[in-house]
Task: structure prediction
Amino acid sequence: MKNHTRTTLGLLLTSLTLGAPLAASAQKKPAAKATNAEAAIRESDIKRDLFALAGDKYRGREGGTLDELKASAWLAEQIRGTGMLPAGEDGTYFQWFNLQRTRLTKASKVSIGSHALSVNHDGLVYQPTNAVVNAPLVYVGTGTPEELAKVDIKGKAVAFLFSGQPTDGISFRRYLTATLRDKPAELVKAGAVAVVVVSDTRAEAVFEHWGHTYERGRFGLPGDPNLLVVNQAPTVWLPTSAAGWVQQAGQQFVADLRVETFAYPSVNIVAKMPGTDAELKKQYVLFSTHQDHDGVRAPVAGDSIYNGADDNATGCAALLAIMRAFKQQPSRRSALFVYHGAEERGLLGSRYYSAHPTVPQSSIVAVLNAEMMGRNVADSAALLGSTAPHLNSSDLVKTALAANQAGPKFKLDTEWDKATHPEGWYFRSDHLPYARLGIPAVMYTSLLHPDYHTPRDEPSRIDYSKLTRMTQWMYLTGWAVANRTAAPAREPGFKLER
Result:
């Protein structure tokens, strides 16, 4: 499939590998102060690039779609314009990989009594499964042991109302996910043949947001265990509006569910600026981001395109600006730039590249990841990977903190990097696969905001002055790492909490 992908999609992208620039003669000169090249990071360039990438033309750049590939082709053309050399496969800027998608067929059906449900719209099926069920439905309240003791659930479909509170500092979303996974498993073990979960008011907002995801199915790299289709009792999640009618006695639960699976192409975009030092040029400082977002989904206030301006066109524009700075003044080590595809599908591009890098894995001395860098208070930001247990290189973090003091002087929020933070933000971007390999890695971010993963994440809402300063901070860190003689030291005994 990989070779077939290159053949069929190569016509779209081949022109981007022609005329790739030769290594600049300036590489032979000794490295100068970063301030000589920092002026190449211009707010006007960043704003222009971001508006182009996050406009409606690319329809939200959903991973595994032609929209993502078209956006990737545009990015590669901009990268070539900066003077960076191709560092993908076969002398190109590209590294192809496949996504595996598992979803319920459109012919799948679920009904409860007289209510015929539109699958993954009126009712969300928690995990794609092949199942045929025709059984009486019993309602057990919130499913406490006392309530369950009053009802014979063997051979029946069991409905319960979601309830409870998260503990141990986990987020509500993680608590909800655990409940949808664990509670039905307990009921099936006790004899239920299907489970129906009814939202309370807290779960309703999540139900509405996650419907887009359930409709699309599950994604992963080929061979991912979470894509295995296990023929099991189905779990159907209903909105709060179902709470009244689902309790009616004498209803029959009927389901006919069928699973289908597909492979889709996605792509990483990889470029480099070779270093000037005869030995250190064999090592790489990797600047990371992702180019995909959520694509076209159900409209919100009349807008169906999830443009992903902050998430993550900000990172894409930032890397282009950093490339221009490294072209103007190369460093002793080589600079490697990776745009990861299909991040929103589960960090798939970074998982693939970290396992199959186009340079020796051992030659990557640090990863600086750009993730949502253009919103919230103008003078605040965060550096994830700076607090234990996420800290895997005190050396790299000290360099980043020094660069912040030398440059933008952001007030740094450390709460979001703690293991106790309910959002688990550290685990949701492309530095993570590298950190799991022990490679020193940090993430630059201005954190979440109300427009996150909505059609309101538009280019007009970005703080371009802040984004420019975030870009400069990231560049100054990378420049320092790329010019020092010793690579950043790795933290002894580094181990993530999950």
Notes: The first strand starts at residue 85 and ends at 86. The longest helix spans residues 309-328. The chain has two domains: 2-101+263-483, 106-257. Residues 92 and 236 are 46 Å apart (CA to CA).
